[in-house]
Design goal:
The protein has about 180 residues and is mostly beta strands. It contains one helix and 15 strands; from the N terminus they run βββββββββαββββββ. The chain has a five-stranded mixed barrel. Strands 1-5-4 form a three-stranded mixed sheet, with no helix packed on it. Strands 13-14-15 form a three-stranded antiparallel sheet.
Length: about 180
């Protein structure tokens, strides 16, 4: 078992006798469920989930965050997930995506307002620790960029290319620096 589960999520068990339930696992209505975020693992005949502790970003960490502020030269992110581990509420970090760190090619033609909007959820990679208040983030890989956004009409946007997303309600195209979806 290596899939990450969330608290309350049912845990699929192999055929046969039910294993002893250890730390991070409980039963409700005859269903074995996760009590912690993590991957279920067998420790002998006992099924457990070890607590995954959040940690601050380090260089090369993959982070998720929402865009909080834009300027012509940078976008500010509120980082809420580091290396797949959610941070406790109120303990978010600040990230900065500079105009030169948006994409690997045509760096001189990048306009921050054509790549991000306030509220967009962005997947990025930490370049460096930046200044005392923030981390420098890059989206200069195909799998990095906007992963979720809403349109001006309030509907979800779906990616149609690496530079645009379509409103599911109006069909209107909006410019974004899109991340390539997983598995494609």
């Amino acid at each position: 078992m290596s899939d990450c589960v969330l608290p309350g999520q049912p845990i699929p068990l192999p055929k046969g006798p039910v294993p002893r339930l250890g730390r991070g696992i409980y039963t409700r209505d005859g269903q074995v469920r996760a009590g912690l975020i993590g991957s279920p693992q067998y420790d002998g005949s006992t099924l457990t989930i070890s607590r995954v502790k959040p940690h601050p970003p380090t260089p090369n960490s993959i982070v998720l965050g929402s865009v909080t502020r834009l300027s012509p030269i940078q976008a500010l992110l509120s980082i809420s997930v580091v290396d797949g581990v959610p941070l406790p509420v109120g303990e978010e970090f600040t990230g900065v995506i500079r105009v030169q760190d948006v994409r690997a090619t045509e760096k001189d033609k990048v306009k921050i307002s054509d790549c991000f909007r306030g509220g967009d959820v962005v997947r990025g990679q930490v370049i460096s620790l930046g200044d005392a208040r923030s981390y420098f983030i890059t989206t200069a890989r195909n799998d990095l960029g906007v992963i979720f956004a809403t349109s001006a009409a309030g509907a979800t946007l779906e990616p149609v290319s690496w530079i645009s997303m379509r409103c599911t309600k109006t069909g209107q195209l909006e410019k974004r620096k899109c991340a390539k979806p997983d598995g494609l």
